[in-house]
Amino acid sequence: MSTVSLESFRAEIDRLRADATAALDAAGRDDAFEKARIEFLGAKSGRLKAIQKLLGGLAAADRPAGGKHFNEAKEAITAALVQAQSRLAGGVAEVEAIDVTLPGDPVRIGHLHPITQTIRRVQEIMARLGFESVDGPEVEDQWHNFEALAIGAEHPARDPLDNFYLAVARGTDPLLLRSQTSTVQIRVMERRKPPLRIVSLGRVYRPDTADATHYPMFHQVEGLLVEPGTTMAHLKSVLRLFASSFLGGDVHVRFRPSFFPFTEPSVEVDMEWGGRWIEMGGAGMVDPAVLEAVGYDPATVSGFAFGLGVERIAARRYGVADIRDFYKNDVRFLEQF
Ligand code: DAH
């Protein structure tokens, strides 16, 4: 007895085939693929299995034709499944596979800023001459920035237009961003007794308009030596040894008479390198008034001090024409050092 007609069996199979291939073709990388696989091809209750059971309900004469139709549908659905599988696997492989033989993207490695390099180099050279590197604060009081350095209350260097006084401290002793590293001479001498050989490199601030040779923030090298029997000849020798080491070759140092409140005598320091004289800073013998201000006896100790511009010596060494280039953070410029 047949319970299913060949026509309805075929129609059932065609619907299943259409549903299954549509579902498998559309399946993405979510769980849709697995759902479709179970719905249509599940071993226990998949729809293909259910239809296969109907085969037994066909009239015996219809069974070969029905079986053939069923097998074709099963093949088509299985093919759609395999295709979906490889499509999904291929997509995954594309994202996850890493070709370890490809050359990597090089990571750009930076380096120290030319000014930092210069500071370290100066410290290194001065250490060889016995000068210890020390630091001082960038926010200073009047005593260390001016008074102890014999820069009196009426001195034009204290003019508010020439200094960054801090608005937070407008009392009798307003604080300021230090205008020179000579402050560190005082800070060290207040704490220690001679003999002393120190250098201090750091930032100083002045409200200058930025141009090729000025910047409102720049760096200085401060040197101080206090030992019995110190003379200007020692000062010149140290500066010359330093300059020859830093710039390389035989650098000539020239002193021109000058004035600084905290040195006596005072000089401007010029250096000749590659046929050109450049003014590098100031120097002199520490003024007795300064020695007294820190509690030293000027009758028994003497010393020299110098202050040079770090940007100036860096610019000279590296051939930089405009010191503003040091602070633009343009990688094309910085990469050269
Ligand atoms: N502090 C001075 C300035 O900023 C530079 C200087 C001159 C420092 C003479 C010194 C020195 O130690 O002895 O212009």
Give a topology summary.
Layout: H1 6-26, H2 32-41, H3 47-54, H4 63-96, H5 114-128, E1 132-133, E2 139-140, H6 142-145, E3 164-165, E4 176-177, H7 183-191, E5 196-205, E6 217-226, H8 232-247, E7 252-260, E8 263-273, E9 276-286, H9 288-293, E10 303-309, H10 310-318, H11 331-334
Parallel strand pairs: 1-5
Antiparallel strand pairs: 2-4, 3-4, 5-6, 6-10, 7-8, 8-9, 9-10
Helix pairs in contact: 1-2, 1-3, 1-4, 2-4, 5-10
Bound molecules: 3,4-dihydroxyphenylalanine (DAH).
Residues 180, 182, 222, 260, 263, 281-284, 305-307 line the site of 3,4-dihydroxyphenylalanine.
Notes on the protein architecture:
- It is a single chain.
- The chain has 337 residues and is an alpha+beta fold.
- The protein has helices at residues 6-26, 32-41, 47-54, 63-96, 114-128, 142-145, 183-191, 232-247, 288-293, 310-318, 331-334; strands spanning 132-133, 139-140, 164-165, 176-177, 196-205, 217-226, 252-260, 263-273, 276-286, 303-309.
- The strands form two sheets. The protein has a seven-stranded mixed sheet with strand order 1-5-6-10-9-8-7, with helices on both faces.
- The mean pLDDT is 92.
- 3,4-dihydroxyphenylalanine (DAH) binds at residues 180, 182, 222, 260, 263, 281-284, 305-307.
